[in-house]
Amino acid sequence: MRHIVIHIKSLDQRGIISLYTEMLSSLSINILKLEQHVEPDDKLFFMRIEAELLEDKTSIEGLKDHLSKTDSKVDGNSKVFDKQKKQNIAILVTKESLPLYDILIKNQTQEINSNIKTIISNHKVLEPISDQFDIEFRYLDLSDKSYAEKELLSILDQEQIDLIILARYMQIIPDSIVNRYKDRMINIHHGFLPAFKGQKPYHKAWERGVKIIGATSHYVTSELDEGPIISQDVVSVDHHHSIKEMINSGRNLERNVLVNAIKAHLEYRIMTHGRRTIVFNQ
Amino acid sequence: MRHIVIHIKSLDQRGIISLYTEMLSSLSINILKLEQHVEPDDKLFFMRIEAELLEDKTSIEGLKDHLSKTDSKVDGNSKVFDKQKKQNIAILVTKESLPLYDILIKNQTQEINSNIKTIISNHKVLEPISDQFDIEFRYLDLSDKSYAEKELLSILDQEQIDLIILARYMQIIPDSIVNRYKDRMINIHHGFLPAFKGQKPYHKAWERGVKIIGATSHYVTSELDEGPIISQDVVSVDHHHSIKEMINSGRNLERNVLVNAIKAHLEYRIMTHGRRTIVFNQ
Amino acid sequence: MRHIVIHIKSLDQRGIISLYTEMLSSLSINILKLEQHVEPDDKLFFMRIEAELLEDKTSIEGLKDHLSKTDSKVDGNSKVFDKQKKQNIAILVTKESLPLYDILIKNQTQEINSNIKTIISNHKVLEPISDQFDIEFRYLDLSDKSYAEKELLSILDQEQIDLIILARYMQIIPDSIVNRYKDRMINIHHGFLPAFKGQKPYHKAWERGVKIIGATSHYVTSELDEGPIISQDVVSVDHHHSIKEMINSGRNLERNVLVNAIKAHLEYRIMTHGRRTIVFNQ
Amino acid sequence: MRHIVIHIKSLDQRGIISLYTEMLSSLSINILKLEQHVEPDDKLFFMRIEAELLEDKTSIEGLKDHLSKTDSKVDGNSKVFDKQKKQNIAILVTKESLPLYDILIKNQTQEINSNIKTIISNHKVLEPISDQFDIEFRYLDLSDKSYAEKELLSILDQEQIDLIILARYMQIIPDSIVNRYKDRMINIHHGFLPAFKGQKPYHKAWERGVKIIGATSHYVTSELDEGPIISQDVVSVDHHHSIKEMINSGRNLERNVLVNAIKAHLEYRIMTHGRRTIVFNQ
């Protein structure tokens, strides 16, 4: 028995749920969870199905053939994911320890279920944390940007990285990597996007005198802090909060918001639609 | 075209979504939204379908026949609701004006979509609000409890009340009415259940020194404040909050939580399972 | 016995709390609450004192003299407010009923303690609500802007308005009025400032795919949506929320946030410092 | 220059702030922050002052003498704390790693400013985490309760422990230790007290069908989960959440709530009044 997730995307039309579920039923595939959503602006239908596949009856490849036939009837587009196969992760960091710690701790307790293959950084400050958790640490020298880009690409290749996590990595990612990891690279921004884009969001928040600060995780696109938002959270502040205290309050948000996004991604609960994400519940 | 909602409840089993959606598809019924949930403790399957029914093809009665045949295949239990038919509401109040105002205002702006037939109270304090919104107000004299019970039952009958709302009605409802309005009578409790059941929850909260207070809406059962919870919300308090300030802070919660519950009920988004509710998203 | 509030602002320096409290003590003024705050950027000291003044011992005018002497010792600046004197309010609205309702209801229950002198609008949609609460409604014809400005100024004069509330008034306020009502005109913006300034914030939020929406009340300055923020609140949304549902969710926020700001203002709990507000607790 | 905190508690009376601040001023002590609060039930006055003491002018001992004289005038009770002296901490744990990790991480980043002297546990599961952070781990064998109590007392003595943290320590603390560490032993309860006291709060919450779960940190008293609450936080859940998912959601709360309480305690921001805490802002 294999635990799988299916993503289906097509133009909205009558009978579409019945069409796919009937096909799955004919293959003795047991649906555990089904969620659907229609985006109203361009009438797109999104569906996520979590199911059990009896491998002596159908293989994942066999299912893909059936899905592709169904897709062609409705001009849809399906993907199947093997929920039991762990994804390979690379974490990019600079100096901030808290989000890194949280990912490592929750990977250890299996709340996050993945293979963390490597931690990559342009500084050596966080190397001891890699050591604590016995994960390989690689220092990335950014003095020669084009060399660094090649090196990074080569690490991603070599480690067969499925998901890149920017856990407060304070550098721009080259477009070559952004494009290759479309919807597979997650950043945490320490501000409540779209407010306070770019650098020093807490300083800006303090100066503007906001009463609530936030953190935002999103897929990375070539435009800074403009990718599809996956998760956000906020915390109240008042006039007593210095910038330093805002940073401390924000840190707890950042790590929670980032871990939420990572979990949603690894559980194949996210589908994107332009700058919007559909984040299914379960 | 008629906008309907279908509730399906059965033992969880393979093929169940396909079975119902296929049947609907065969009747040219267009599914707008589908949500399902399995309660893990006794493996019960719950599904809510929102759909458009072409009345020249099928009537609601015709659909009921088909559903009942499908039900018998899986030992299920279905209900169909006409989303376009407004439900009749009776609101019971005592002296607290805010939740009453909110229901009346939101019924007026059609955020709540219902016929408010009557406001019933054991006090006359809120009669002017009924007048403001041109809703009939009935004073219920509780000095003779058994007479009052009969009178209340007769009003509910006469006005064909579908849903009773206890908007801070500070009296016990007789069991005859509780039983008749099972899952159709909603109470707002001004405390974060199951803490602070019964009277004076804010006083108890102040004495216990809690840092967060809450409000809870639930279906009424014969046990005080023990019915299935529909909606809850909370607000932070600190040592500065006097009991009176807690009451003020709590008031905003109460009305929001109550209106949320009413909307979920009127949109047929709630199914119950013992003391738990399944509140569908949409 | 008169209930007063004192605001003190000066450069931060040693002994300042003792200096003022000693003076008050010498006048037999009983301090009920004292809060202070130092803004770190330019070392400004802010203090709010709530106190009881025995009128047979000192008048408010007498206190002002003493304060002014103390001010001169530390180059400070004090103000005294009479907490028992109700402030006169003008509410400006367009078509949105909920924030208006909330102010009127809470003024009626005395949670807001003020004289609402007039409701002014460029539309007649909300006139029936004025009638419900027996408040004078004035229609402001904006076809001749300069005439409308004069008329508005004359109403504010005539009614001796202390505080202007823009309860979703969708028009620009002329600078003449903005300047005159500096720190005495409160707007509610239906977005989480500084994100989504200007018009249609919910549409922008939907398109950007944010997971949390907000509302912001602030003092009005000549720059649109840039005045000092008094209060903010947020609510979570997800992909299911249509723009219309966002608007509905936001409405509850807007009124709460606006009423919070009004209460803080009327209780003399707000001091401003550039674009920042100090909102004292009590 | 020494950074100190003063706690003052007395019956509420006129002139009390002036009396203490004047005395401090006369000793050239610079007040950085002052907060006061009156508990309305028994008219008790609480004040916290954060100040800078010029050690060539006054010693902490000298200040204590002056405070004691002032206390005697108003029948008050003062305490002085040296903010620069790190407190010694013992952490008691069982098997849950997340709160322990969070304390250790935040002590490392100096968000928590203390000497963590020892981690004590009735299991060996968390010993590797002690090793990661180079803190001494002591296994406490509970098979002989009276021996274990003696051993625990002896560790607390030997390490001169100022604060005991129960970071999900699932055992009852003997009264001898509870009494000795009154207002100096903090527990985290994984439920929203006073609801769901005792064991398995998440199971109880699931069965009751609550829509919000919480965590509570409190000082330990001899009555289980009845001590003064320091900090609480909550998170929304819905019917989708299994008990396991509730536990995961709750874990993030627990550690945040516990760390908040620890920080408030170490910064001398907490005063207790029966079952209530006054938690000052700054």
Rg of chain A is 21 Å
Beta strands of chain A, count: 13
Label the overall shape of chain A. globular
Tell me about the biggest sheet of chain A? 7 strands, mixed
SSE layout:
4 copies of one chain form a homotetramer.
Chain A: E1 2-11, H1 16-26, E2 30-39, E3 44-53, H2 60-74, E4 77-82, E5 87-93, H3 98-108, E6 114-121, H4 127-133, E7 137-139, H5 145-158, E8 163-166, H6 175-180, E9 185-189, H7 201-208, E10 212-219, E11 229-236, H8 243-266, E12 270-273, E13 276-279
Parallel strand pairs in A: 5-6, 5-8, 6-7, 8-9
Antiparallel strand pairs in A: 1-3, 1-4, 2-3, 9-10, 10-11, 12-13
Can you describe what's shown?
The structure is a homotetramer of 282-residue chains. The first copy, chain A, has helices at residues 16-26, 60-74, 98-108, 127-133, 145-158, 175-180, 201-208, 243-266; strands at residues 2-11, 30-39, 44-53, 77-82, 87-93, 114-121, 137-139, 163-166, 185-189, 212-219, 229-236, 270-273, 276-279. By secondary structure, chain A is of the alpha/beta class. The first copy, chain A, folds into two domains: 2-82, ACT domain (Alpha-Beta Plaits); 87-279, Rossmann fold, CATH 3.40.50.170. Chain A contains eight helices and 13 strands. Chain A is globular and about 60 Å long. The two termini of chain A are 20 Å apart. The mean pLDDT of chain A is 95. Chain A has a seven-stranded mixed sheet with strand order 7-6-5-8-9-10-11. The first copy, chain A, has a four-stranded antiparallel sheet with strand order 2-3-1-4, covered by helices on one side. Chains in contact: A-B, A-C, A-D, B-C, B-D, C-D. The A-C interface holds A 37, 39-40, 192-196, 207-212, 214, 228-234, 238-240, 242, 274-279 and C 37, 39-40, 192-196, 207-212, 214, 228-234, 238-240, 242, 274-279.
